[in-house]
Amino acid sequence: MGCGHRRGHLHNHTLTIGLHPFFVRSRLNYALEARGLTKAFGNLKALDDVSLGVQEKTITILIGPNGSGKTTLINVIGGLYHQDAGSVFYAGRDITGLPAHKVYEAGLVRTFQIPSLFGKLTVLENLLVARKKNPGESFVNSLLKNRWQGAEANSVERAINILKLLGITKNWDKPASTLSGGQMKLLEIGRALMSDAQMLLLDEPISGINPTLAHEIFEKLVTLRDTLGLTFFIVEHRLDIAMKYVDTVIAMAYGKVVTSGDPQEVMKDPRLVEAYLGG
């Protein structure tokens, strides 16, 4: 797997990861746009004509009381649920109705689409096995060693650069099972980056994490946004921590978007207060 690197070698790489370019930009530089999404489960309308946009190279959080439709929205966007009506656009491309693996291949990745961490493998190895279209997985390419060994070396370099960005380089040769809860969350994000993701859908990334590590995770998301131009759309309940780092807040209640915009303005919006009190 090419993981027999001495620790000293980890410092000889640049921080260029080489993420693939976006498709044609959608209007207003939206990385993601939903138009009139509706989804019902029997008599329950989980999404009721939801329209929203997530601007590229931003951190946007989706908030709202339990049962407001947040997870259903993420599942529709990610291709796990099929909408009853409406459209989804990613980077200017209509991805409405695409199955989850096609949405993933387009560069819009929800972290649980990456297989669970392998506790006995090292941190670096966990990144390498998450690489999309790894040439060594092909029987034909495995016979043509010269063809895939170069690609494997590039994968190792990419993985090391991701570890640097996430601040977990010192753990590169440790089993993933030895990481703290917060470090495991970062490794999960790193595995998504190995898939060439340009936008990540995260569902409560700091759930169950102590405040210090929770702040560290959001600080790393800011670094990824600023350094790589990544876009994040995050379902989050721990607003006391998240609000310090996000660019935009979208609030839902009863299957609808009730308000959105600047974090400070949204938090003062009486419609949001009403949504939580009513929820």
Molecular structure report:
By secondary structure, this protein is an alpha/beta fold. It has one domain: Rossmann fold, CATH 3.40.50.300. 34% of the residues lie in helices and 22% in strands. The strands form 2 sheets. It has a 6-stranded mixed β-sheet with strand order 6-7-8-3-9-10, with helices on both faces. Strands 2-1-4-5 form a 4-stranded antiparallel β-sheet, covered by helices on one side. Helix 5 packs across helix 6. The longest helix is centred in the middle third of the chain and has 22 residues. The N terminus is likely disordered.
Can you give keywords for this protein?
279 residues; alpha/beta; Rossmann fold; six-stranded mixed β-sheet; four-stranded antiparallel β-sheet; globular; disordered N terminus
Overall domain count? 1
- List the total number of helices: 10
In the CATH classification, which architecture applies? 3-Layer(aba) Sandwich
Indicate the proportion of strand residues.
15-25%
**How far from one another are the termini?**
50 Å
Shape: globular
What's the story with the biggest beta sheet?
Answer: 6 strands, mixed
Topology:
Elements: E1 30-41, E2 44-55, E3 59-63, H1 70-77, E4 85-90, E5 93-94, H2 100-105, E6 108-110, H3 123-128, H4 139-143, H5 145-166, H6 181-193, E7 199-203, H7 211-228, E8 231-235, H8 239-242, E9 248-253, E10 256-261, H9 263-267, H10 270-278
Parallel strand pairs: 3-8, 3-9, 6-7, 7-8
Antiparallel strand pairs: 1-2, 1-4, 4-5, 9-10
